[in-house]
């Protein structure tokens, strides 16, 4: 038996008016029967469907309504009597068919009129453009009485089968929900969800969704198994890694995720006109959004998506490109409304033109139409956002080969890099941080040239050189090549100390801290097929030495080497406690660090580093499927269910790229580990079709 409350048990249920009704849907020789739980509360009404497949060996019964806040005795006693619920079970009763506004009798078995009732709604085979053809849907016994204010309502579906001695029987249930049209908190723009392209937007698709799921799920399981098998069957990969790689993908579905059709009038021609593939991409693949975290409610937080984006570009690349187009559009807009920022107390515009927004908006407001819900800092002065856009654009081009996308993004990259150049105040080719927490570590003050933002800057400049060559703009290529030459010299002179790159150039003691994320620029260069040989930006011996130092201090000297890499470690082996973030472990940063280690041939170290995070989160803290942004050595954690840990897919990309390059195992201290599975980036697609 599958019982289900109508609603979530919260404030949206309180007004009452909720009602349930049974249904039966037959199509292509398969019959699905169950209950519809109608929840008409505005502004986002929906229907849930609890359903089961009716076969020759099973009986499906139901109870349309009962009190979910009582003891359940009514349902339980009914079930105990005969293993069924007290409802019409077969097709022998008569029904009444409703066609339009007219009702006509439908005769029961043996030509005898019965005394049950039914209404017919629409669902059948998929017709033109994938939309359902109108065919009968039977409703049995009629609807329940709508719930009263403050009173809950639930229903239950039971499947019964006869099991012979030592026999086997499979009983199948599905839960589907249909909320086709939505509004966000500001109740302005109405959106249709992506699935309405295939199931319609009238709010009557729950039976169709149930039927589709119950008839297709075995095929889905087979496809998932085929996709995962190359990793799961690879005995050289540790079990914890296989678990983390696939299970961290929970956040792509459970991260407040929305996938919407783009309203026809929502793409401003004056901004979109120069992007040839913008309309086709957003129209065909829709608009995708996921929250920074379930506690940090901002969509597509871009400084964090920088890490998480590896999961999208490797598995659902068109959604990544769609997100990038949305970010490019937001970059070209401005919102000069003034507001006061919490950390500085300064009044500044919500959004300035030609700078990447921090996020695409708040679900309680109007995402996409009003961006930058983040109010702690004025992120127009952040040093990392523009650079992360440029780096992601080139990586996405490299992994997809989409030249049209690159051409569309090129003017936006030029604009944001031009904005970024104002941070190079001494014209030495290297930007300076502003003496406050002006990057993704938004509580960790950075002053002057820094390992993190300086490294991202040099990597972005190097990428601009490559893109300029691809776009045939020699003057731009020469300009950025000159900046790169000067910037590389300044970066090495100001920050390299022989073992690692200093945190920043301030006069504070923490300036010489060992930052676990100092090689983020090199990480993205390697992921994009750059960073060595003719395209080397950071001297390879320095990169390897820095990673070895991080492993020695931030990993092994922290918590016995069993909790991943702490963000900041002082050179004498004490965590940097100059800020609330410097002595945290950021799970997504650690997975990115591990990927960088793999890229540079330190595969054993990379897996040791990442394993500490997995063991801490999934085993010691018991936070499976709610991986936090951060935790401390004392097992205090922050921001459950967070976007950044999706960066574990960067480890998989690094393994695949290393396998292509070397095709040989790497071992250390008697522990063997293959450099990767045999999949290439484009072969690792989880979803072969846009549906």
UniProtKB/TrEMBL annotation:
Family as reported in the entry's similarity comment: Belongs to the non-lysosomal glucosylceramidase family.
Give me the ranges of the annotated region Disordered: 1-21, 664-691
Species: Phyllostomus discolor (pale spear-nosed bat)
GO CC terms in record: endoplasmic reticulum membrane; Golgi membrane
What are the residue boundaries of the Glycosyl-hydrolase family 116 N-terminal domain, all occurrences included?
Answer: 1-89, 106-220
* Keywords, comma-separated and alphabetical: Cholesterol metabolism, Endoplasmic reticulum, Glycosidase, Glycosyltransferase, Golgi apparatus, Hydrolase, Lipid metabolism, Membrane, Sphingolipid metabolism, Steroid metabolism, Sterol metabolism, Transferase
Name any one Pfam family assigned in the record. Answer: DUF608
Could you tell me what this protein is called?
A: Non-lysosomal glucosylceramidase
Q: Where is it localised?
A: Endoplasmic reticulum membrane; Golgi apparatus membrane
Q: Which domain of life is it from?
A: Eukaryota
What the entry lists under Gene3D superfamilies is as follows: 1.50.10.10
Q: Which residues form the Glycosyl-hydrolase family 116 catalytic region domain?
A: 286-651
EC numbers, comma separated: 3.2.1.45, 3.2.1.46
An example of a GO molecular function for this protein is:
beta-glucosidase activity
Cited InterPro entries:
6-hairpin_glycosidase_sf, 6hp_glycosidase-like_sf, GH116_catalytic, GH116_N, Non-lysos_glucosylceramidase
Its recorded reaction(s) are: cholesteryl 3-beta-D-glucoside + H2O = cholesterol + D-glucose; beta-D-glucosyl-N-(9Z-octadecenoyl)-sphing-4E-enine + cholesterol = N-(9Z-octadecenoyl)-sphing-4-enine + cholesteryl 3-beta-D-glucoside; a beta-D-galactosyl-(1<->1')-N-acylsphing-4-enine + cholesterol = cholesteryl 3-beta-D-galactoside + an N-acylsphing-4-enine; beta-D-glucosyl-(1->3)-O-chenodeoxycholate + H2O = chenodeoxycholate + D-glucose
* Signal peptide region: none
- Could you tell me the membrane topology recorded for this protein? Peripheral membrane protein
> Which pathway is recorded for this entry?
Steroid metabolism; cholesterol metabolism; Sphingolipid metabolism; Lipid metabolism; sphingolipid metabolism
| Gene Ontology BP annotations | carbohydrate metabolic process; central nervous system development; cholesterol metabolic process; glucosylceramide catabolic process
SUPFAM superfamilies the UniProt entry points to = Six-hairpin glycosidases
């Amino acid at each position: 038996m599958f019982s289900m409350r109508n609603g979530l048990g919260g404030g949206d249920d309180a007004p009452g008016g909720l009602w349930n009704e049974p249904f039966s849907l037959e199509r292509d020789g398969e019959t699905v029967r169950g209950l519809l739980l109608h929840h008409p509360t505005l502004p986002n009404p929906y229907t849930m469907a609890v359903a089961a497949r009716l076969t020759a060996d099973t009986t499906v019964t139901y109870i349309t309504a009962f009190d979910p806040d009582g003891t359940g005795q009514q349902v339980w006693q009914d079930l105990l009597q005969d293993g069924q619920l007290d409802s019409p079970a077969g097709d022998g009763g008569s029904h009444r068919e409703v066609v339009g506004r007219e009702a006509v009798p439908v005769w029961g078995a043996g030509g005898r009129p019965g005394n049950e009732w039914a209404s017919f709604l629409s669902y059948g085979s998929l017709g033109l453009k994938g939309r359902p053809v109108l065919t009968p849907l039977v409703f049995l016994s009629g609807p329940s009485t709508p719930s009263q204010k403050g009173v809950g309502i639930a229903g239950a579906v039971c499947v019964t089968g006869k099991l012979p001695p030592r026999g086997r029987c499979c009983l199948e249930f599905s839960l589907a929900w249909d909320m086709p049209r939505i509004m966000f908190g500001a109740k302005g723009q109405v959106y249709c969800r992506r699935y309405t392209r295939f199931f319609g937007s009238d709010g009557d698709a729950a039976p169709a969704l149930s039927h589709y799921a119950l008839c297709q799920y075995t095929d889905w399981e087979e496809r998932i198994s085929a996709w995962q098998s190359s990793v799961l069957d690879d005995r050289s990969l540790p079990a914890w890694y296989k678990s983390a790689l696939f299970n961290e993908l929970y956040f792509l579905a459970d991260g407040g995720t929305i996938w919407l059709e783009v309203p026809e009038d929502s793409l401003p021609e004056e901004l979109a006109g120069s992007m040839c593939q913008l309309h086709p991409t957003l129209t065909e693949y829709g608009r995708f959004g996921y929250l920074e975290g379930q506690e940090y409610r901002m969509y597509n937080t871009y400084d964090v998506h920088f890490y998480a984006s590896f999961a999208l570009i490797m598995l659902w690349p068109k959604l990544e490109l769609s997100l990038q187009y949305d970010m490019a559009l937001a970059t070209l807009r401005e919102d000069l409304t003034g507001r006061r920022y919490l950390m500085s107390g300064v009044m500044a515009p919500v959004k300035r033109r030609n700078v990447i927004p921090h996020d695409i908006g708040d679900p309680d407001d109007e995402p996409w139409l009003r961006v930058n819900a983040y109010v702690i800092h004025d992120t127009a002065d952040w040093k990392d956002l523009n650079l992360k856009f440029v780096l992601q654009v080139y990586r996405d081009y490299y992994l997809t080969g989409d030249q049209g996308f690159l051409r569309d993004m090129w003017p936006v990259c030029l604009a944001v890099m031009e904005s970024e150049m104002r941070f190079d105040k001494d014209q030495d080719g290297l930007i300076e941080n502003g003496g406050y927490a002006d990057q993704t570590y938004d509580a960790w003050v950075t002053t002057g040239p820094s390992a993190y933002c300086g490294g991202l800057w040099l990597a972005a400049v190097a990428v601009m050189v490559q893109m300029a060559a691809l776009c045939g703009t020699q003057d731009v290529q020469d300009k950025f090549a000159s900046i790169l030459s000067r910037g590389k010299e300044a970066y090495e002179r100001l920050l390299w100390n022989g073992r690692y790159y200093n945190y920043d150039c301030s006069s504070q003691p923490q300036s010489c801290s060992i930052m676990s994320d100092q090689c983020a620029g090199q990480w993205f260069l390697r992921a994009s097929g750059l960073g060595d040989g003719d395209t080397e930006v950071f001297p390879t011996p320095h990169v390897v030495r820095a990673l070895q130092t991080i492993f020695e201090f931030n990993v092994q000297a922290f918590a016995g080497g069993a909790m991943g890499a702490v963000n900041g470690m002082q050179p004498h082996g004490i965590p940097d406690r100059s800020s609330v973030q410097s002595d945290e472990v950021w799970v997504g940063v650690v997975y990115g660090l591990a990927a960088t280690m793999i890229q540079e041939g330190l595969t054993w170290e990379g897996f040791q580093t990442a394993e500490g995070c997995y063991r801490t989160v999934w085993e010691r803290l018991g936070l499976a499927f709610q991986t936090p942004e951060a935790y401390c050595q004392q097992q205090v954690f922050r921001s459950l269910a967070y976007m950044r840990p999706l960066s574990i897919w960067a480890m998989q990309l690094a393994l695949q790229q290393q396998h292509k390059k070397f095709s040989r195992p790497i071992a250390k201290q008697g522990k063997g580990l293959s450099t990767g599975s045999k999949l290439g980036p484009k072969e690792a697609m989880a979803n072969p079709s846009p549906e």
